[in-house]
Amino acid sequence: MLKFSATLRGLRVSALKNRENAGFVIARKFLFLILLLILNMFMLPLVLVFLVFMGVVMKFSILGIAFFLAVNVDALQAQDASEDNEDEPSTAAAAEDSTVATDTDDEGEGLEARIEALERKIETMSRDREEQDIEPYQEFFGEFELAFSGYIYSEAWFVRDNAGGVGNVTTTTPSQFDNHYFNLGLSGSWNQNIRMHATFEIEHSNAESYVEEAYIDFDYTDAAFIVRVGRIITPFNIFDDYHDPIGNHFVTRPHPIRRIVGSAWKTTGLEALGTLPLSDDFAFNYALYVENGRKEASNLRSTRQEQDNNSNKAIGARLGFDALDMLKFGGSFWQGEYDDDDRGSTTLADGVTPTPVGNLWMRMYGFYARLDVEGLSLYGEYVVATAENFTAPSLDAEESGAFTWLTYTLEDVLGDLGDFRFGVRWDIYTYNSQTYDPQTQIQSGQLLGKTQYQYAINASWLPHEQVDVKFEYLILKEGKRLTEVANNAIAIQVGARF
C-alpha cells in the first residue's frame, strides 16, 4: 500500500508539472477507486475469518477456565470439610473431657492464623540465614569457617659465576629460571576464641615440599594472651613476618637473615603471644615460646630441624612496641642445646678425646626497628649467634650481621598501571668459624674474623597491591680474607599474594 500510494503521488506531481488535461486526471482517479474496491474485496473476508477464529478461541478458553475453577472449588470445599471434621471434637470425646472448649474459631480466621504463623517462621529463618552468611563449603563443615590464602613467585637469575652461591641461588648454574615458592594457606575458626592456621609450601618446582606452619590458637582475651600450639615460624625479630613476595621489598633476603637466623625459621612447640594496648597510639607485644632446638651441622642455616635431636628444649622471647601505626621496634632472645644427647663425653672421629663439657649451647640475640610513613620504608635488624665449641670451650664460635633497607613507593605515578617503588639494601655478615659441628675441629685460620658485604639495588612495579614485578642488581663482596668472585647478579621476580 505504501509503494502504491507513493506511485500515485509521483503521477500527480508529474501531471501537474506537464499540465495534463482534466480528462487524464479524471481517468486516474477512476482507476484508483477501482483498485481500492478490488483490494477491499480481498481484505474483508480475511478480516472476517480472523474475527471468527478469535471468537472461537476465546469461547473455548472461557469454558476451560470455568471447568478448572469448578473442579478446584469442589476439591477445596471437600478439603475444608475434611479439616473441619478433624478439628471438631466428637461427641464422645467432648463428653469424656469436660475441659475441652466447645467454641472453635471461624474457618477463615483459623486459616489466616496458620498462614500468618508460617510467614513469620519463614521470615525468621531467612533472617537467620542472612546473619550467618553461610558459604557452600561451610554447610559441609558445619560451624567451622574456612578461608584460603598464600603466595607464589618465580624468578630469573643471571649470574656470571655462582661459586659459593649468591642471593637465593644455591646451585653452581650461572643463570637459571626458578619457580621459587608456591605457598598455600588454610585459616579457620570454630568460634571467635579457637582458630587454626596451616601453610603448605613447595620450593623450586617440587624440589622441596613441607608444612611451613600448622597450629591452633586459643584466644579468650581479645588478643591480649593467645596460646599457640603446633608448628610455627619462630618469632625471632620480625623479618619472617614479611618474607612473602609482597612483604619483602626485594628479590633476595638479607644475607645475615638467611645465614644466621635461617629465614624462614620453622619449628614445633608451644607459644604464648599477645598485644597489650598502652594508649590509642602505642601498644606492647610479646611472644614467649618453648620449642625443639637446633641440631649439629656445618653452618647455622643447616642447624634447623624438623624433630629434636636431644631432650633439651629451646626457649625464646620477642618483646616489641608499636607506635603511631608507623613505627615498630624491639628485641629477641633464643637459647637451646644443639648437640646430640650425651655427646660431651664421647671420643671424636680423629681420636682426640676432649675434656667432657656436657651439653653444648647455642644462643642468639637480635634487635629490630622499622618505620613506614607516607610511602617511605626504613627498616633494619641486627643479630648475633654464639655456640659453645666442642674441642675448645674457651673459643666459642660466633656469627653476627645486620641489614638496613630504604625504599620509597610512588603511588599512582603510573596511573591505572599501578605504583612504582625503588630501594636499596645494605647487608653485613661477619663470622669467625665456618662450622658448628662438634666432630670437626676448628682450624686456626677459621678463627680469624671474616666479613662479607652485600648490596641490593631494586626497582619494582606494583600493578596491584597484591602483585609486584621486581628488578634487582645484587653485589656481593667476599671481604679481605676471601678471594673475590665475580658473582654479582641480576634478578627478576614476579610474585603475588592471595
The tally of beta strands, per DSSP, is 16
Largest sheet: 16 strands, antiparallel, barrel
Class per helix and strand makeup? alpha+beta
CATH superfamily of the largest domain: Porin
Record the strand order, biggest sheet: 1-2-3-4-5-6-7-8-9-10-11-12-13-14-15-16
The CATH architecture term of the largest domain is Beta Barrel
Q: Which regions contain 5 or more consecutive residues with pLDDT less than 50?
A: 1-22, 86-102, 134-138, 344-350, 434-448
What value does the Rg take, in angstroms? Answer: 43 Å
Under CATH at level 1, the class of the largest domain stands as Mainly Beta
Helix percentage: 25-40%
**What fold name stands as the CATH topology of the largest domain?**
Porin
Shape: globular
Strand-helix topology:
Elements: H1 2-18, H2 22-87, H3 91-96, H4 107-132, H5 136-141, E1 145-159, E2 175-189, E3 194-203, E4 208-219, E5 226-233, H6 255-261, E6 266-277, E7 282-292, E8 313-323, E9 327-337, E10 361-373, E11 376-387, E12 397-410, E13 419-431, E14 450-464, E15 467-477, E16 489-497
Antiparallel strand pairs: 1-2, 1-16, 2-3, 3-4, 4-5, 5-6, 6-7, 7-8, 8-9, 9-10, 10-11, 11-12, 12-13, 13-14, 14-15, 15-16
